[in-house]
Q: What sequence folds into this?
């Protein structure tokens, strides 16, 4: 009964190597088919990261917002990632990477061939859009700095210039406050971002300032440090009028501070804000329509006016709100019949309302194609839930990336060559099995990395290349463990075929434990690390898993088949399994048979 059982196991053992080899061939064939099937989205090479292909890497840091202590959370960060990704893709950028790093940083990797300046403006702009009614406005007075002069006549001349300048500013203020003196003028006309809506018009040029001679020739020198006093408009509280009077819009830095403060003000409260293009400041009412109610915005070229404009359309809620506010404003006097389009705390335009409007609106003015497309893209994809500032910007040229890739490949080739030299010198014929197994493992790693690029956005960066180099040693270590177990069995006096089968269970256990430890370390590193270090951990884990597949389904079956060949079975000196070189003992089974069958000893 015992003999037939052993015979059946032997028969099964002979067939198992081919089944294992057939399975791994099917896996490789599937990967190859997958590469050709995805040839439309990839050039059949792994997708390269910024440090290898070249491009720009932008690190954004979320800022705490006044009144919102818990705004920086996982939900808002993930929402911001999605919006930034849509913005970048809206520029026509392919294969950009947007991911969180830690609890308050977002990394944006933009490959070469992209306008990095435009992309930086896109990803960092909060784009908090709101439509607010204008309560009143004032001229943003710039501080006067008369040039020092050596003679008295020069000082007098400078005073005369100030008188003229002051009279011109006064004329402009009168023009703002009394629209009847210039019917076509609008407070924000002349700068980028004029708004027009279905018959709602704002002119592109300011009316000329009145000549001082027309007002009786009177000249009054204004006080440079004191802003002009404006009559308190209806609906403007004394506190709001005081804020408007104190608002400084004279410099870029002052406007930036004012916009930051205005952007942090609640939508239900009135606010003071600077014009983004002209020396005008506004007192604005509560938000009437929010930017999230803009359903679509796009840049188009207006053939009639010969300029680029941004057309907007609202969703149902926004359309109703827009109709309500324009219906109320059209009945009010200047400037309270205007509404302000406020983007990130700055007034982009403040057009006059002549009729009730419902759905469509447009922002027009001195746009270029690039600036119009940029604003349309920002408005289309909505506002970021958080405010961000650039904490780091790194640009890698294509030449530098190519040099780093070449250096990584050279390092990998040197590491592989050293492993091959060691295997040939120590294991001789067995080195052939190890080298072929390394080639199979490298091919599978290459194909999987190529497929993971378009599938999950995996990009091969320099740390990932380092992980692949480290994996060469891990894979070679598995072969060494198995070969040494076989050699131990040969030293015990067994022939090669039973030595191969007896060595496998012990080697298999050691290989699994070793690879599990490596994979666990890679998994932990991937979870706790951020940025490029994750590329190293991912590649290390991937190659470790492939090591198990290759050893089980390729190396072991190939070793079983080669053990039946005379070159290895007879222990050729160059096979690496020569019993004499290994110091093998006489066969144990033959000595036992001699003792047990001697009739004289019985």
A:
């Amino acid at each position: 009964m015992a003999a037939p059982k052993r015979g059946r196991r032997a028969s099964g053992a002979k067939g198992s190597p081919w089944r294992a080899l057939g399975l791994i061939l099917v896996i490789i064939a599937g990967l190859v088919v997958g590469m050709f099937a995805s040839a439309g989205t990839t050039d059949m090479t792994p997708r390269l990261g910024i440090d290898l292909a070249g491009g720009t890497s932008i690190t954004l840091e979320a800022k705490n917002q006044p009144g919102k202590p818990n705004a920086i959370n996982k939900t808002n960060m993930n929402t911001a990632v999605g919006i930034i990704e849509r913005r970048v893709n809206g520029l026509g950028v392919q294969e950009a990477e947007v991911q969180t790093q830690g609890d308050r940083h977002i990394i944006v990797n933009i490959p070469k061939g992209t306008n990095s300046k435009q992309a930086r403006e896109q990803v960092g702009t909060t784009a908090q859009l709101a439509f607010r009614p204008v309560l009143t406005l004032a001229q943003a007075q710039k501080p006067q700095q008369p040039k020092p002069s050596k003679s008295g006549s020069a000082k007098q001349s400078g005073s005369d210039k100030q008188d003229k300048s002051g009279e011109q500013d006064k004329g402009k203020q009168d023009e703002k406050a009394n629209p009847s003196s210039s019917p076509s003028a609008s407070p924000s006309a002349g700068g980028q971002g004029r708004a027009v809506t279905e018959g709602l018009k704002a002119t592109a040029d300011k009316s000329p300032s009145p000549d001082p001679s027309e007002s009786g020739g009177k000249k009054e020198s204004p006080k440079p440090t004191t802003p002009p006093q404006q009559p308190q408009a209806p609906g403007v509280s004394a506190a709001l009028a005081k804020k408007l009077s104190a608002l400084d819009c004279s410099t870029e830095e002052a406007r930036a501070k004012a916009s930051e403060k205005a952007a942090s003000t609640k939508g239900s409260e009135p606010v003071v804000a600077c014009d983004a293009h002209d020396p005008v400041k506004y007192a604005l009412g509560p938000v009437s329509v929010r930017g999230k109610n803009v359903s679509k915005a796009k840049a188009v070229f207006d053939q009639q006016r010969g300029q680029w404009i941004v057309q907007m359309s609202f969703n149902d809620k926004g359309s109703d709100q827009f109709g309500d506010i324009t219906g109320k404003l059209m009945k009010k006097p200047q400037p309270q019949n205007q509404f302000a389009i406020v983007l990130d705390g700055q007034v982009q335009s403040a057009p006059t309302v002549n009729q009730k409007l419902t759905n469509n609106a447009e922002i027009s003015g001195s746009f270029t194609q690039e600036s119009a497309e940029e604003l349309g893209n920002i408005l289309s994809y909505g506002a970021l839930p958080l405010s961000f500032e650039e904490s780091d910007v790194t640009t890698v040229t294509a030449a530098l990336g190519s040099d780093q890739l070449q250096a990584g490949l050279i390092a990998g080739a040197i590491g592989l060559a050293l492993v091959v030299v060691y295997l040939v010198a120590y294991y001789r014929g067995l080195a052939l099995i190890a080298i072929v197994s390394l080639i199979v493992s490298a091919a599978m790693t290459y194909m999987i990395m190529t497929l993971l690029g378009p599938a999950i956005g995996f990009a091969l960066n320099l740390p990932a290349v380092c992980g692949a180099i480290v994996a060469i040693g891990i894979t070679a270590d598995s072969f060494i463990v198995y070969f040494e177990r076989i050699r131990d069995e040969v030293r015990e006096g067994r022939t090669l075929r039973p030595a191969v089968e007896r060595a496998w269970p012990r080697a298999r256990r050691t290989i699994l434990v070793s690879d599990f430890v490596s994979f666990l370390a890679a998994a932990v590193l991937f979870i706790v690390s951020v940025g490029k270090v994750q590329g190293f951990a991912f590649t290390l884990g991937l190659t470790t898993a492939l090591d198990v597949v290759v050893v089980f389904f390729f190396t072991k079956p190939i070793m079983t088949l080669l053990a039946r060949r005379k070159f290895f079975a007879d222990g050729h000196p160059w096979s690496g399994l020569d019993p004499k070189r290994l110091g093998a003992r006489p066969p144990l089974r033959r000595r036992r048979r001699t003792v047990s069958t001697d009739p004289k000893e019985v």
User: Anything to note?
Assistant: The longest helix spans residues 2-37.
